[in-house]
Amino acid sequence: MTMPFMVIEVDPKEVVVGELAGDDGEQFVYEHLRAYCATFDPLPAIDVKIQSGRFVLARGEYYLRIANELERPAIRAIIQTSGAESIVGFHRSLSREEVDAEAESAGGVSEAWHICYLENPAQVSHGAVLRQWFEDFVKASLQGIGMPDARVTGWRFDPKNGQVALRFPTPFGHHDWQKELMYCLLNLPQGKLVSYQGVRMPDQSG
């Protein structure tokens, strides 16, 4: 039986990091994840529980840490409602309708940043070649799913730390397109990616 829960906004400084099973650090590259999280708000929700009248983190240590480092005034927290009434009263709660509406909106299209990091940026002989590769992919792939005017609207390439950042209208929830994007990322004409949106890319050796 699923326990009833609620979603609240809480100051990340109010959340105590207790003894955790631990986030899957092998899945993420922390600095890369933080760079990606800096491009949007709100951050992904964390899970908390109540212990001794305090919010104690149960899941989402990376996101809580990032929220504090980025000095975000609030982060969303999922909490079981049983026994939580005494501590959540002064925090903004999100209704199920509000959460559902946001989830539905996220299934559409919006301008979004895509943050990648190259394993060896020195392999990129000219950033313009890499940019043209991405622009060609965005134009061709998004036209193919009925977005004829889609184009890259933002671009950054830092040859020192290997960050590649581009912004374009992104069809969230379109699984076939997301597979096409991943194929593109794994087959760059120059260099090899370490991460995408903070998630470590699979090892392509062998």
Write the layout of secondary structure elements.
Layout: E1 5-10, E2 15-16, H1 30-37, E3 46-51, E4 54-59, H2 61-69, E5 75-80, H3 85-88, E6 93-94, H4 96-106, E7 109-118, H5 127-143, E8 154-158, E9 163-171, H6 175-185, E10 193-196, E11 199-200
Parallel strand pairs: 2-4, 3-5
Antiparallel strand pairs: 1-5, 1-6, 3-4, 7-9, 7-10, 8-9, 10-11
Helix pairs in contact: 5-6
Q: Could you characterize what this model shows?
A:
- With about 210 residues, this protein is of the alpha+beta class.
- The chain folds into two domains: about 5-105, Alpha-Beta Complex (Conserved hypothetical protein from pyrococcus furiosus pfu- 392566-001, ParB domain); about 110-200, Alpha-Beta Plaits, CATH 3.30.70.
- It is about 30% helix and about 30% strand.
- The chain is built from six helices and eleven strands.
- It has a six-stranded mixed beta sheet with strand order 2-4-3-5-1-6.
- Helix 5 packs antiparallel against helix 6.
- The radius of gyration is 20 Å and the shape is elongated.
- The mean pLDDT is about 85.
